[in-house]
């Protein structure tokens, strides 16, 4: 197998595996995605990962289309397509199959237990994603102060986060 095909195959396998961890949303898969593309394969640096994630947040559409940017960085336009398909198709098929099974098993008494068990898993994955982003983004006292002030304001008042983003960007 040529190096290009091997890279595309690895992109597919890695992003398909990561996509299956996206319980609770794509952000839940961020720690594993970071591990794959920064630590394991060295396709990106921490700085590049942070910048691509930021780009995914401000671009229109689903924020996890950032996987296309990673794929494009690794293997050109073919890599972008492979990463997109690998990240979205397996998890979509799993969700479709789980929904069909869920409806079939509706009278089953264990469904509430499964639902209650999945909630803490989803929350734990989301917290891990937030922790990763905090480690990457908080670079010194100024960014830590901005994050703390924004958190306090969001918890104390009903403020549109867009205003906090604009304020944070203008301060830093």
Can you offer a commentary on this structure?
The protein has 172 residues and is mostly helical. The chain contains seven helices and no strands. Helix content is 78%, strand content 0%.
Descriptive terms for the model:
172 residues; 7 helices; 78% helix; mainly alpha; single chain
Identify the overall geometry: flat
| SSE succession | HHHHHHH
Strand content: under 5%
What do the pLDDT scores average to? 88
* Rg, Cα atoms, Å: 19 Å
What profile does the largest beta sheet have? none
Quaternary:
single chain
SS-derived structural category: mainly alpha
Distance between the termini: 48 Å
Beta strands, count:
0
Unreliable sequence segments = none
Helix content: over 70%
How many H/I helical runs?
7
Topology:
Blueprint: H1 3-19, H2 30-40, H3 46-58, H4 66-104, H5 111-137, H6 141-156, H7 161-171
In short:
The protein is an all-alpha fold.
């Amino acid at each position: 197998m040529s190096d290009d095909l091997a890279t595309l195959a690895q992109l597919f396998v890695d992003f398909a595996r990561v996509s299956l961890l996206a319980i609770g949303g794509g952000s839940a898969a961020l720690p594993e995605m970071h591990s794959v593309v920064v630590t394991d394969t060295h396709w990106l640096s921490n700085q590049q990962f942070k910048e691509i994630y930021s780009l995914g947040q401000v671009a229109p559409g689903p924020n996890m289309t950032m996987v296309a940017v990673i794929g494009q960085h690794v293997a050109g336009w073919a890599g972008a397509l492979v990463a997109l398909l690998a990240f979205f198709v397996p998890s979509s098929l799993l969700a479709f199959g789980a929904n069909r099974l869920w409806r079939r098993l509706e009278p089953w008494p264990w469904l509430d237990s499964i639902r209650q068990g999945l909630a803490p898993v989803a929350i734990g994955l989301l917290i891990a994603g937030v922790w990763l982003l905090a480690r990457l983004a908080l670079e010194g006292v100024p960014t830590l102060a901005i994050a703390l002030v924004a958190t306090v304001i969001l918890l104390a008042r009903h403020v549109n986060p867009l205003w906090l983003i604009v304020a944070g960007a203008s301060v830093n």
